[in-house]
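Sequence of Protein-glucosylgalactosylhydroxylysine glucosidase (Gadus morhua).
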Amino acid sequence: FLYRSSFHLYNFTMTSGSDPYIFTSNTLPRDSRFLPPLANGLLGWRVYHSIMHMGSVYNGEGGDCHRADVPCPLSVTMEMEDPVQQSYSLNTHTGVFTHTISTAIATATQSFYAHRYYSQLMVMEVSIERQAVTMEPVTVKLSSSFTPQSKDIDFQSSPDYRGGRRIQGQTTAAEVPGGPRPTVDLIWTVMPPSLILQPEQSHSRWGFLLALGNTNQSTEASFDEGLSLMASGDLRDSHQQAWKELWLDSTVELAGSETLSKAVIGCLFYLLSAFPPLHDVSGLFGGVSPGGLSNGGSGQDYWGHVFWDQDIWMYPAIALFYPRLARAVLEYRVRTVDGAKDNAQKQGYKGLKFPWESAVSGREVCPEDIYGQQEIHINGDVSLAFQHYLYLTRDLSLFTEGRGSEVIWGVADYWVSRVTWDQKDQSYHLLGVMPPDEYYYGINDSVYTNTVAKSSLQFAVELASLLQHPAPQEWQKVADHMKIPFDQKEKYHPEYDGYIKGDPVKQADAVMLGYPLGLAMSPEVRRNDLEAYEAVTDPDGPAMTWGIFAVGWLELGEAEKAQKLLEKSFDNIQGPFQVWSESSDGSGAVNFLTGMGGFLQAVLFGYTGFRYAHSIKRLDFKPLLPNGLSELIIRGVSYLGNKMDWMLRKDEVCVILREQSTSVEESPVTFPREAGHICQMDSTISCWPL
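Predicted 3D structure, token representation.
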């Protein structure tokens, strides 16, 4: 794109030697856990694996609840005699994984994709192209590990459907006693043991399809659509077009570091893959778990449960680009309100208590009771996601007919019933909790928990005012008198009441007060918090931590220090397909979307310094790029109905308005460089020097 301001002509395109969107290798990872996952918000699968998963399909009661294993008919490898060369690539532009084998006479290509538009479909395609003039047939062997059985679903064979095999069944145990057991219907095209390019053929292509659904009707309709698109040659094109549209509105490009650029692209690709198609953000969306849809079976990757990881770590990057996908996350929480109410009642409190680990019902499914009982900051984390949505969109419909107000006010009622008043210090306290730093439990006044509780109470009051709903006085009273631990002598925030400075810390906790919680503090206190906890944070802790430290140091103008900490995250990226592990040694959850979300926040909110104010319609920037990065371009940002692109250089910031809100009330938007320096955006572009 070309954009002209009164000072410059911008060619809004970056160039590099190789395409950073394509991850290629001549070999597969030794550890099969790091094979690339393919997902589309409903189906998830790790390539070549014999198991796949479907969103919202869990098996097991309570703490035994986990993603139900579904056998995958696409678990097929390809072989040829006398291979000369072979390669594997993941094209994140198109969402297609490819295996290519070349021999002296032919090249065979095997491709997989989880269809990005028709989310009940997954596809394998094989093509053979003759490279030499010969009259010999060319044979490609297909080896399958598929068996039409599951330990979680009682499958029964059903009559073939339009040439496809079919099995149907129900999970063996409901999440809640007496609750529904999901039905699963799987149809797939049969794969032969080999494919042959005949002597008279120069090339040929084969397609294989699976359709997975909850009802006969939806599965058959998807299979029919897949066959039709395959016959017309449009199956892959429709998939790739859907990915093209996604990337058009969520592109992040960095000039200066290929490693960083690839990491950002990988994070965005895998995170977007966990969300439903833009045209069909339906009630089937079951939230986002730390390992995504491709993982989460019994005993692995947190059983596929939804944690605070979704609301605090993954959500912000998605919400910045896609209000509809952000709303889908919040609507998932709304659908679990009845379960949250039940959780609160079981604990003896009022309002809503969202589960530490959530599946479909909203009832607690954590295998260990202590987390569900004590890690109550989840309530504030959920509320914060709703708050950010309102500030980004001003969409009050979510809170009225969308029932979002029930969530916010139910959380506020919980806090009021959960706090303890201390007459001596005239403060409210939250006792017997576990902070985000899970090395400690049964502690009092976790600084993160108390701060996020205070914030959610304040938001409940604000929302009540917006909706002209009477707010109980206790909401504001508890917020005003909530104890926020602070050491006046050391000028820092202790992690909890009784924390001894220097004690080890598992992960980002108190350092999150400044961002994302936005607790007001002086630069001195912000620095003291960062220094105190950076020195004692477990280097083998979960991957999202260093992104938050990076944001903090960028706020203080320490770009190089921030970059060193952010680059620690590279140790969690297990090549060659940019799949993250929870811990830097490769252990823990894989395809760790939580870490990817934290990393992206350092780029989107750290480098840009972007914050949105709730009381006035403006964007706050405080951009800072480290040495080695000359330019950052972010396309497709959505704010108050306006679509815009941002460009940051060492000496200049530009904001380009692509689409302006049709609501006069929400336009225009102003962009402050700093206090007292407001740049009004005209209909095209606003630029100002740094």
